[in-house]
Design a protein that fits this description.
Layout lengths: L1 H12 L9 H4 L2 E8 L11 E3 H15 E13 L3 E12 L5 E13 L2 E9 L2 H7 L13
Parallel strand pairs: 1-6
Antiparallel strand pairs: 1-2, 3-4, 4-5, 5-6
Length: about 140
């Protein structure tokens, strides 16, 4: 998971879709990956993103919102098929330049060493939403 998070942070820092290679992220994801994001956040779309195409569209929307993400702390619990990850992350919003420290718990299912399903739980989703308005182009990246 640590390699996935590093690839995700590098993708966001490079500017996301059209500016960074998605390949370094994709190698850590099962082809049938499903991401379930919490509704109401500026990057969630309908909340469910499926497959490599869906994850790439999610990261494109995510990269429109965030200029950077820095993993400050991580703890992992689990086995070869299920992992719980506690992340403390500092995000910087593109639109406002505001930094937000966020605590996120993720329930992750793994298949053959790659992420199959992820359900993130944000400790304070309102702080995330307050840091940045929804991107103007967010409708270009509907979840599937």
């Amino acid at each position: 998971m640590e390699k996935f998070y590093a690839a995700e942070a590098a993708y966001v820092a490079a500017g996301g879709f059209g500016k960074a290679s998605y390949d370094d992220v994709a190698v850590h994801l099962d082809p049938e990956v499903v991401l379930h994001q919490a509704p109401g956040l500026p990057f969630t779309g309908t909340g469910t993103w499926r497959g490599h195409d869906g994850m790439e569209r999610f990261l494109a929307a995510f990269s429109e919102v965030w200029e950077s993400m820095e993993f400050l702390e991580q703890e992992h619990w689990g086995d070869d098929s299920t992992v719980v990850v506690r992340n403390r992350v500092r995000f910087r919003a593109r639109a406002t330049g505001r930094d937000v420290d966020a605590l996120i718990m993720q329930l992750i299912t793994v298949r053959d060493g790659r992420m199959l399903e992820c359900r993130p739980f944000y400790w304070d989703p309102q702080a995330i939403a307050d840091a940045c308005p929804p991107p103007v182009g967010s409708r270009r990246h509907p979840a599937v």
